[in-house]
Amino acid sequence: MSSEVLIIGGGIIGFTLARELRLRGVRDVILLERGTPGLESSWAAAGMLGPQAEADKYDSFFRLCCESRDMYPQFVEDLLAETGIDAELDQTGTLSLAFSERDSQKLRERFECQRGIGLPVEHLSAEEARRREPFMSPDVRDALFFLNDWQVENRKLIAALRRSAEIRGVKIVENTQIDRLNVEDGRVTGAESLDQRFQADQTILTTGAWTSLIKMGVADMPFSVEPVRGQIAVIKTAKRLFQSVIYSPRGYLVPRLDGRILAGSTSERVGYDSSTTDSAVAALRAMSNEIAPTTSGLPTIDNWSGLRPFAFDGLPIIGHLDAIDGLTIATAHYRNGILLAPITARCIANSLLNGISPAPAYSPDRFKLRSVVSGI
Ligand code: GLY
Fold it and tell me: Which residues line ligand 1 (CB under 6 A)?
């Protein structure tokens, strides 16, 4: 099978990129997925679009996250128009809570940094925060409110993206595990599964936590991507208890329109083990009870886990390798896969179609430099 562009990995990054490339005139796009598209990290995520609530630095990566978040209203509106599937972008905002003097100090620092660079953020007293969220614990000392940090229903988003890809003629090949990239004279020319060969002018890896399992053919990749498991427990409410996404220093609650509350998340280095554990559910329930004691009487109706793709420095890998033509990487989005999908697709399309390289901070070659300097 041959194509102009071969995308390996059928999660949110792969699908958003496939759609972007078709929108920008690439004729033949094949998207390969080892299992059923969209059923790994993109399905397991909680869909928060919260760069301000999660920020600890105000660097170019923070700006990338904010820029991608700001693309969401148009992205979701366009997908609804194209496919009839509403990804339920909820723009109510996000709260970050303090339970101790130390937490309050951190919130004040975050508030001052963000106000200082002109970002919309409010510092709320406990009473003001409780007016927003009446079920919040009386132990809350104060809070920040981020009007521009939102949430999206990531499972509906991936369904919309898949539908859009189908409408736009992307060829989707499921249940096809790629073991090896084909390299000829320093150029990647496609990839091979156990029984099929895919030829392409450009090959793009959007393989998330599984990226480092793919063999390069002749050369090794100069980076590695590790899985970091995150577990979520789902609490059932008869009616919606909260309006905003709510963070505490120990986790977050994401209230869905249908009354479910997603409580997340763990960070566990357990390889490719995507099972769930009772101890994680108990910890997530304790986190939820701290935010809102009223949730303690509610049932856990579901739980799941996903594998976040993590590179050594925690930053995404977006770009091509200097030494190898025909190959582009878009992976290692770690905690930000849903958030960064629109900007990643734009960066990769700009690189392939307009020759504009993504920022060096995200280059796959940055790890090569590190190993030379440190002698690893
Ligand atoms: N983006 C939140 C998480 O990965 O848990």
Answer: 48, 230, 264-265, 308, 335
pTM beyond 0.90: the answer is: yes
Q: How crowded is residue 172: how many other Cβ atoms within 10 Å of its Cβ? A: 18
Quote the radius of gyration of the chain (alpha carbons, Å): 21
User: How far is ligand 1, taken at its centre, from the CA of residue 102, in Å?
Assistant: 23
- Quick one: which atom of ligand 1 is closest to the CA of 334? 4
Q: What is the pLDDT of residues 116-151, one digit of tens each?
A: 999 999 999 999 999 999 999 999 999 999 999 999
Question: 267 CA to middle of ligand 1, Å?
Answer: 9
Q: How many angstroms separate the alpha carbon of residue 335 from the centre of ligand 1?
A: 4
Residue nearest to atom 3 of ligand 1 (CA): 335
Residues 262-276 have pLDDT tens digits of 999 999 999 999 999
